[in-house]
């Protein structure tokens, strides 16, 4: 029956993690998958999250959530993404649902757009998270890349990016990451974002923000700046968000999709179609994680504690960025490695070629993904020297 079904080659990132786990070397270092590790090299359980979890009555029956998710959770998502005092919330212009992580937001948002804007195609940064192609291509979109990463400067090809956006066809969907770009770690400045927003408005484009790393760049509020700014301007847009990293709740599948609409009437229509999209895909989201996140975010004390913990994670990542930069600078004064401290969030694009990535892994047990993306959140004091020494040997 299934002889014709081709073997799945595996997801490159997830397969690499399996290879890492099987590697018998004691001193191996995993800088591949996007996990935040603490100073001891462990995926943390945040204190604020543990406290919220302990408040949940686990003996309560696990009935189905509504298609759109729990109301308290959805309110918390809106306030986390847009800020509690955002005018678009007060005006009732945002339709928000619970999605299965940021990935679920991409899928539901993609299906929704494909159904209601069947002629639209999708534009995405070059490079981007590989799974964008799977999820949004899978939703049926013709996908195009716009210039983003500049290998020569390890920075942004801003003028070329803007020129491409200024030529978008009407109602083109543009996928953007508001902070901590995966895989490059390179974000536009606020001035550049403002120009991007103007270009999108001129072209009557549909912005689709994918915010998976809110809080890891400059702060929970700061990182959502362009999302909040564009929602204030009044145009329509989609925003997917995820608590996977910011709450270290990867497996609970806690995310959201918010569609900012010009009017409350449109928001009500859109909410209904998002419910219909969820119903067609998986009927309703998962219960437990949304209880934890809803409890945390709706309690001012826990919320403040969480803000503090996100700040600690961000500070630690930035310390590791400086630590790596300083060590590499000392070992290889011939190279400019300042990009490690200017790039933001969990990832840095190192510019290493595949054969250099292979050498790092085979000779030194240091795992990056093939594109040269490094998860800097996997660095900690005990592996920093070894990683810097290995990199200094393979860089050219
Ligand atoms: N979007 C980007 C850019 C990501 O890097 C990720 C996760 O790595 C996601 C979305 C999906 O996040 P989640 O695990 O919440 O589905
Ligand atoms: O490191 C990355 O970019 C990954 C992270 O369900 C990931 O692709 C892994 C599993 C998953 C969602 C994201």
Automatic annotation (TrEMBL):
Q: Cross-referenced Pfam families, in alphabetical order?
A: Aminotran_1_2
Which ranges form a coiled coil? none
Q: Where is the signal peptide?
A: none
What does the record list as GO biological process? L-phenylalanine biosynthetic process from chorismate via phenylpyruvate
Enzyme Commission number(s) of this protein:
2.6.1.-
Ranges of residues in domain Aminotransferase class I/classII large: 27-390
Q: Which SUPFAM superfamilies match?
A: PLP-dependent transferases
| Gene Ontology molecular function, alphabetical | identical protein binding; L-tyrosine-2-oxoglutarate transaminase activity; pyridoxal phosphate binding
Keywords from the UniProt entry: Aminotransferase, Pyridoxal phosphate, Transferase
Cofactor(s) the record lists? pyridoxal 5'-phosphate
Q: What InterPro entries does its record include?
A: Aminotransferase_I/II_large, Asp_trans, NHTrfase_class1_PyrdxlP-BS, PyrdxlP-dep_Trfase, PyrdxlP-dep_Trfase_major, PyrdxlP-dep_Trfase_small
GO cellular component terms listed in the entry, alphabetical order = cytosol
Question: Quaternary structure?
Answer: Homodimer.
Family listed: Belongs to the class-I pyridoxal-phosphate-dependent aminotransferase family.
Q: What is this protein called?
A: Aminotransferase
Organism of this sequence: Pigmentiphaga humi
